[in-house]
Amino acid sequence: MKAPQFSNRPPRWAQRLLAWLHPSETLEEVEGDLDELYTYWHRRAGKTEATMRYVLNVVSVLPPFVRRRQRKEAHQTPSNFHPAMLRSYFKIAFRHLIKNRVYSFINIGGLALGMACCLLISLYVYDELSYDRFNTHYEHIYRLVEKQQQPGGIYDVAATPGPLAATLTKDFPDVQQVTRVGRWSGLLSQGRRSVESNQMLVVDPGFFRMFSYRLLVGNPLTVFRAPDEVIFSEAMAERFFGANWRQQNVLGQSFKLNNEKMLMLVGVAENPPVQSHIEFDVLLPFKWLERNDEWSMKWNSNSYHTYVQLKPDPSGEPADPAAFADKVRHQLKRYDVGNETPLLLQPLSEIYLYSKFAFETDHGRRSDIAYIRIFVTVGLIVLLIAVINFINLATARASQRAREVGVRKSVGAQRGSLVTQFLGEALLMTVLAVAVSLALAQLLLPLFNDLANKNLEIPYPLPVFWLTLAGFTAFVSLLTGLYPAFFLSSFRPIRVLKVGVAGHFSNVKAGRGFRQTLVIGQFVLSIALAISTIVIYRQLSYMQNTKLGFDQSQLLYVRLKGDLRGKSQPLKREVEQLPGVEQVSTATSNLVNMNNSSKIEWEGQVPKDEFLITNMNVDADFVKTVGMSLAAGRNFSARITSDTLSTLGAYLINETAAKRMGWTPVSAVGKRVKFWGTDGTIVGVVKDFHFRPLHVGIEPFIFRFRPKEFYFTLLVKTKPGLVARTLTDITQVYKKIDPDHPISYGFVDQDLDAQYRSEQRIGRIILCFAILTILVSCLGLFGLTAFTAEQRTKEIGVRKVLGASVASIVALLSKDFLKLVLIALLIASPLAWYAMNYWLESFVYRIEMQWWIFALAAVLALGIALLTVSYQSVKAALMNPVKSLRSE
Amino acid sequence: MRRTYLGEFEEIVLLMVAILDGDAYGVTVSQEIEQHTGRQVTFGTVHNTLIRLEEKGFVTSLLGGSTAERGGRRKRLFKVTALGSRALQDIQQLRNELWQLLPPNTLKLGGS
Prior knowledge:
The structure holds 2 protein chains of 2 kinds.
Chain A (H helix, E strand, L loop, with lengths): L11 H10 L5 H19 L1 H14 L22 H17 L1 H29 L11 E10 L2 E5 L2 E2 L2 H8 L3 E16 L2 E11 L3 H4 L4 E3 L11 E5 H8 L12 E4 L3 E9 L12 E4 H7 L9 E9 L10 H8 L2 H5 L7 E5 H4 L17 H28 L1 H13 L4 H38 L10 H27 L3 H6 L2 H5 L3 H37 L9 E5 L9 H9 L3 E7 L9 E6 L9 E7 L3 H5 L3 E4 L7 H4 L4 E6 H6 L4 H4 L3 E4 L2 E9 L14 E5 L7 E6 L4 H15 L7 E3 H7 L2 H35 L1 H9 L4 H35 L10 H28 L2 H6 L2
Parallel strand pairs in A: 5-10, 7-9, 16-21, 18-20
Antiparallel strand pairs in A: 1-2, 1-11, 1-12, 3-11, 4-5, 4-8, 4-11, 6-9, 7-10, 8-9, 13-22, 13-23, 14-22, 15-16, 15-19, 17-20, 18-21, 19-20
Helix pairs in contact in A: 1-3, 2-3, 5-13, 5-15, 5-27, 13-16, 13-19, 13-27, 14-16, 15-16, 19-27, 19-29, 19-30, 20-25, 27-28, 27-30, 29-30
Chain B lengths: L7 H13 L5 H12 L5 H14 L2 E6 L10 E6 L1 H20 L4 H6 L1
Helix pairs in contact in B: 1-2, 1-3, 2-3
InterPro entries (chain B): Tscrpt_reg_PadR_N, WH-like_DNA-bd_sf, WH_DNA-bd_sf
Protein name (chain B): PadR family transcriptional regulator
Pfam families (chain B): PadR (PF03551)
């Protein structure tokens, strides 16, 4: 700078202001131009004026007045999607994948596991939600259900009286059609061939018009006009006529039902689809039922399902069910005077998942929406954990990419292109993970089908499936890629390149906090699932081991059919003679989930004080056979004439019943009660026993001794170790006495277990997912420890040189992670406690949630975490410090 | 046909760039405008207008011609593009046509 020009210079502060605030794109030319102008003004008007004008003009080119020039000509940034750039991105991504094989495996494997789970769960949920959708009139069909006021509460009942259906079409123009569905059972025979139907339904002719069950043979418009007709399902036709029934002329053939009524086969229906809430193998016309069972035409015959199909509104949309529901609400009162029970509409779409009806009035295939909720929650948890892993590892590995980001930025990469690059990498990883997860899901499908009791397939040909998968991929890659993308692209090139990676990262505390939060989140979910699993299994084993008040082991039951029900004594006597049999009794139930309850009147009853009492008919050997014990009084006896009279009743009640009627067990003996119109005396009180699942408490129970009435079940107590032989013996005896019917038998303990099948399934599912979540969380933890150990290689080297022991270094590395797991435990415990408390509340008989459950989960989680962490930390601690310190 | 709108000041600046014929940059353009129209314009106005004209495609620019009096900094030299000269000609032609349509006495009466 030359001295004479110095005085001609514009003020420094204005120049600085300009350099500081003016856009960098045009700074050089504007500075030059203004300098030139200053010289010009200085020459023409002197220093003061020149300075003034300079300052004014500087202000005119400062923001917000100045227009920003778009940079384009000097160095054009190539598009992020330029082939060369894409190639570079791919190459770098693959190099990283291969260079860090372990991380790539953990990352992709963990994500794939999570996604495979999610995939299977979505398949399941989709399947469950699409029940009954095969019906063309799906949206127009409703079932009428009742809300009954009974002593003891309000009950939802899925059954309606037989005559209701006809009044609906007559009274309501909005009703397109109605059909009733009732249950029946029986043996079909033709000549010497006979087959027992498992699911016999009685339906109206409208059944085939309303629902989309197809007839393979027969005319759906004319069937069931006459009463003596029958329709088989495909499966039934195969059982009866063999696999080639299509070649035979089956229509018009006659069959005997229960060896008396003749029926003509008018059609063979396709097997009801798996996704149908109605199941049948034989259909009978309702007309037949009306002819043979007059009760079905009475208003108190509350045992049939009534379905209505509403007319669509003029635009073809489903009609508003609310309007119809209002009108139909008091339909029962209209015809059955005094019947205040309201009718409600249940849409077809809700029957499969939302049917919880009392008194076993609902039948057919059912599931529970609770399953779906549990599945979805658990699936999302697993996915969340996998995604957290991915984010965690990706941010942790970011240090390796810091140099690359620095170099890319200095050669002109902008933030946008870096974000694209890392999002693209996330996409690549996700696509790989999706591919692996598809393979994994295919592999795990049989196992899952077994677990969920389903027959699912991956719907490869469905475009929707691929679209969903693509959407899902995009979503997950965004989720997993966003944080790394923005985190990495925010590096300042100079710092990263000059100070070095370590220097840069020592400042990134935020990243570490973020990772720690995610690890805590993961372990909260895993530990909560682990605690839930323990609680569910404890409850299950509690239910299996609870003393029920009778001895269900080695207790066999044989169903009595047809004539045998009235004449069971010969069979009983013969079975008693068998060597492996200890005791035999005839009864009306097998003690599993008994529901048959009615009102009772008793001595000293206060008016309006009513309750329902569950009942069954037994014989004098019953108490001994099932191993119940008496609290007071005596057992029934065939030798006491007052016990066996048909006009007078002799009763045994349970302790709860005695208490309900205001007696002690001792005072109850000899009291008079009236049940089902028969006056009688209480001869004894049995100790309380569980006759319903442990979800509900013990209620009043009454045993009746009616030796001249029907018995439905033969209860056989076998001697230990002789069950198999006894079973064949009983079968032979049964065949001799009742050659018409095939024998049906079962074990009481197995049937009791089966009541908790849904709980067992939930337990198994949660167990699987708990293992999975812990596995995936540990995968992530493993990756993170490896990363920290690598980061601190030098530090460990120095510590070792200075005399640190291996143990202290392992402790140093493990401490941080164990702290996180401990925090997670503190958060997870109340969460799991709350959720499990809610679940346990559905059982009247339940376990207490003891502290050791949480302690066990804690020990488990800490142990697994410690194992995971220690592999890496021990490896790091054992490393030779010379190696780690040699190179700098 | 829709022309890109050219404001009054934009038109003057564009004309100046054309007049200066290859020697147009921030300093010369603002000096010429001051001399020929007598208007005091701030440098920022000229600077912004030139950028805007370039965005509209009427002028192009390149950096060059650093001199000692500007501290060795380069200047941005502007040139009218084909589109720019077309726009100027269009304006000229439109004006001419409109002048032709003017009744002979109107201007004298109104403008005297």
